[in-house]
Request: fold
Amino acid sequence: MKTLLTVAVSLLFAASALAQQNDWLIVPGKRIGPITPNTSRADLDRIFGKQNVQDQDIDDGEGGKLPATLVFPNETATSLAILSQNKRNRVAQVHICNSWYPRDPYLFPACKWHTVDGVSLRTSLEKLEALNGRAFQLSEWGTDAGPGSISSWLGGRLSVYERDEKKGWLGLALEFQVSRNGLTEQQHKLYDSIQPQEGVMLSSNPAVRGLHPIVFFMVLFFPGSEQGPGR
Reply:
């Protein structure tokens, strides 16, 4: 009987660990799936399988390179680029679902990774406002300073995602979809009418809303991490 109980408990813990490995959940400052700040390079091989993990430099968005470890590198909907500190012994940042350079600016991939609120790549501005309970602030498009990055949730419910180097945070950037032929006439009119104030825009701006931006870039920063490449 004792042996059966031991086996049952072991199976329960194994199932719990497996569930966490596959829950695709982003918890700002704490984890993304089974990955925490203390996850080692060897842990990644064990958790995801060596065939799904590889070391590869990624572009930093400014012409340089950054050493990274890629998880599911050939699967856009699940891919991760992990940037580490201290020779890969501590995870600093996780770039989610191709949220790194180079990437196709016309491709807005679906993504399995998400927050408990359902925020992921392709989440709309309108949904973010509804979750936040109010408008939020974005950096101006068309600049090099993290275009479309959410710089402040203005005290709303999603302020838990806001930049905090001590607690960690979830960096999001929004972009509107453009065809390979360029902006439409209507998009040109809306874009030109935004008139950002000191490099920032409000999500409540009718022109911003009219462009129907969605989440295009998503990076999880663990405590102690610095701002990541391009955002």
